[in-house]
Specification:
It is built from 11 helices and 10 strands. With 250 residues, it is of the alpha/beta class. Helix 3 runs parallel beside helix 6 and helix 6 packs parallel to helix 7.
Length: 250
Amino acid sequence: MLALRGVVAGYGGGAVLQGVDLTCDTGSITCIVGPNGAGKSTVLRVVSGLLPCSEGEVVLHDQRLSGLPAAGVLRAGVTQVPQSHALFPQMSVRENVLMGGFLIRRDKKLLAQRYAEVEALIPIVADRSAQHAGNLSGGQRRMVEIARCLMLDPQVLLLDEPSLGLDPRSLGSVAEFVHRLHDDGVTVLLVEQNVRLGLGLATHGVVMEGGKVRLTGSATEVMNHPEIASLYLGGTSAATAEAAEAAERR
């Protein structure tokens, strides 16, 4: 459904992405993991049209996204939840969510319909509609950020570090909602520094290093890959489980 083919992109003349090939199947949850500086967030910026690629292309179905402005990518059905500080703190929850419908603002009926659908899907939008977004907790802000993206009824949702700054309860709420989107057929591409969390949430995993894709597979395959487990999880999954059991016995 969504594909990057030979993508080269970067900042100030330097190439961060060096020939990235990546495919996200329709309705999948694909998680990109890797060390800092691997190019994970840059992939999302290229897909969303915030950063042009100097080589290669990004394709959604049969439509070429690379070369389109960010608004064109939005119209094609791709929305992004940035890493942090994505809300207008002095605006209400309702106003922040309605900003997500900017492209359909002239169709008042459609705008009202989409807002009602988002309210039903994410209760905090209705419960805290008049409250300033800056007064929300981290988990609540993340849900409002997602709600804003859903105003355009996207085919693809991009999530950049959804766990950043969230407590375990809020993480659980966000994870549960991502699975609901997956059940509804929305394709999710996320970047996550917390490897265990990200791959546990995903159906497919991608490991990046040095601006290139190093490994792809199902989330389980990537999680259980000996080298990846050693680098990011402190050992293989089996070894980690054995160590935890031994610690409990002690």
